[in-house]
Design a protein that fits this description.
The protein has one domain. It contains one helix and eight strands. It has one helix spanning 2-24; strands at 27-31, 36-38, 44-47, 57-60, 74-76, 79-83, 88-89, 132-133.
């Protein structure tokens, strides 16, 4: 009888673990490829290029003073989103505002989502619900930027 109880409890634990694993796989956000940077003077971007790794990216904007003759430092970070359920993506940017109006400000950094595409031969485009992206996504400051006389992007 004790053996049947042990088998029953073990089966219950394994079933619960299977449900937990199945639930954990309903959404995954990871790298979609190697990030790139353009317009940087001495800057760099590093991150994982594997779909099997968590999404982590480090951006060094490099020289952002007038010594950099490029008006925009543009970073593209491909991401892979895999989901079996509807999802929402939000982003938060943090950082102090700089008292110097000419210095980099949090509002100078924008996020955009472009080029949604299937990630392989066995992937499908989600038709269960619309893709919902909240602010500050879809705020690509380089898409409509003008450079003022003071050298600031406006």
């Amino acid at each position: 009888m004790a053996r049947l109880s042990t088998i029953g409890i073990l089966s219950l634990v394994m079933t619960l673990c299977a449900f937990a694993a199945a639930e954990a796989q309903t959404f995954d956000i990871s790298s979609g490829g190697q990030p790139t940077i353009t317009g940087a003077s001495g800057g760099s971007v590093t991150g994982s290029s594997s779909l099997l790794n968590d999404l982590t990216v480090t951006i060094n904007f490099g020289e952002i003073s007038p010594a950099n003759t490029n008006s925009i430092v543009y970073v593209v970070v491909p991401i892979g989103i895999r989901s079996t359920q509807p999802y929402q993506v939000t982003v938060t940017r943090t950082g102090p505002s700089n008292a110097n109006a000419q210095a980099l400000q949090p509002a100078d950094v924008g996020f955009g989502v472009n080029n949604l595409q299937a990630m392989g031969s066995k992937s499908n485009i989600c038709t269960n619900s619309s893709h919902i992206f909240y602010s500050p996504f879809n705020n690509d400051p380089s898409s409509s930027v003008t450079i003022g006389a003071n050298g600031r992007a406006t």
